[in-house]
Design a protein that fits this description.
111 residues; 5 helices; single chain; globular; 0% strand; 60% helix; mainly alpha
Length: 111
């Protein structure tokens, strides 16, 4: 999953460079990691959980910890979603939290 997130960041830089150079970016296809896919299915099972995704990427936000705890409690029966959330909870590096929280926030209810 870390490789996927690094690739997502590289794609963003590539797209910004294309804008600066005024060229059309080529589409880069990436495969969603199974843990992230499992997390998205966990959210899809009860979309009321979406309201807890907004602040996961900001370690210093007052709701970060409470929203994370709420999702972890909800993930009691979903070991893969709980794995992702517990990994996020253990992180103290704000850059890692931002990277993973941003990916979790990308949940698209239309997929």
């Amino acid at each position: 999953m870390i490789e996927y997130m690094k690739l997502q960041q590289a794609i963003k830089i590539y797209e910004m460079a294309c804008v600066v150079e005024k060229i059309e970016p080529k589409y880069v296809k990436t495969v969603l990691p199974s843990l992230l896919d499992s997390f998205y299915r966990f959210i899809k099972n009860d979309e009321r959980r979406m309201k807890f995704l907004s602040y996961l990427k900001d370690l210093d936000h007052p709701y970060h910890q409470s929203d994370l705890d709420e999702l972890i409690e909800d993930a009691n029966q979903d070991s893969r979603a709980r794995t992702v959330l517990n990994w996020l909870k253990r992180q103290q590096n704000e850059h890692k939290v931002f990277l993973l929280g941003s990916e979790l926030e990308k949940y698209d209810k239309n997929k």
